Amino acid sequence: MNGMKFGIDVPTCLSGMAYPVSFATADEVIRIAVEAEALCFHEVAGNDHLSTQRFVREAWSVPPDYFEPLMMLATIAAKTSVARLATGILVLPMREPVLLAKQVATLDQISGGRVTLAVAAGGYREEFESVAPDLADASRTRLMAEGIEALRILFGQRRSTWAGTADSAISSRIPSRSSRRCRSSLAAMPRAPFAGRGSNVRVGCRPSSARTK
């Protein structure tokens, strides 16, 4: 039986929230990850924000450093060798599925198959609306569910076609030939980076709460 394994969160997007603004520079985030691997932590994970929340703007006179987690994990991948690299979590409704699939597949390959992709609907609706104002009335849980479905198809098939539901706005965020269909061909993917498909990438989804819309 495998023993218990521990991971650590690196402060990619925690400045101004859990910690003061300017809590950690980009170099310090990378150093934390490298030292975590040296201390035998199984995984390092970075959280995700694309815009600053209202309460953070009101609390601090200077903007926080929100480092993009996939780019930060790619840098960490170059400086580590065994620690798994996780998104903890990635806000899927704010991400375009085709581009995200390509980014994760690339990160998985340059890291030697160490990626764990965890996604969620996100904790701040104001952030979602500021990033995607055209989807302000959309259900984030529906967007997340359809995003996961799209990712499964993109990761599992070299040529893929996907159709969303009529009441979901996710179709407007995927390059398509029609308003509700996605056609894509992802090259350079010798492994399908998805759980249950013989892949090294594990994908998780944080359960949504009743308040998340």
Automatic annotation (TrEMBL):
Which GO terms label this protein's molecular function in UniProt?
monooxygenase activity; uracil oxygenase activity
Reading the lineage from the top rank, the first entry is: Bacteria
Annotated SUPFAM superfamilies: Bacterial luciferase-like
**Annotated EC:** 1.14.99.46
Q: Which InterPro entries match?
A: Diverse_substr_monoxygenases, Luciferase-like_dom, Luciferase-like_sf
- EC main class here is oxidoreductase
Keywords of the record: Flavoprotein, FMN, Monooxygenase, Oxidoreductase
Which positions fall inside the Luciferase-like domain? 4-166
The reply to whether DNA damage figures as a keyword in the UniProt entry is: no
PANTHER family tied to this protein: ALKANESULFONATE MONOOXYGENASE-RELATED, C2H2 FINGER DOMAIN TRANSCRIPTION FACTOR (EUROFUNG)-RELATED
Q: What is this protein called?
A: Pyrimidine monooxygenase RutA
* Natural source organism: Mycobacterium innocens
Taxonomic lineage per UniProt?
A: Bacteria, Bacillati, Actinomycetota, Actinomycetes, Mycobacteriales
Q: Point out the gene that encodes the protein.
A: rutA_2
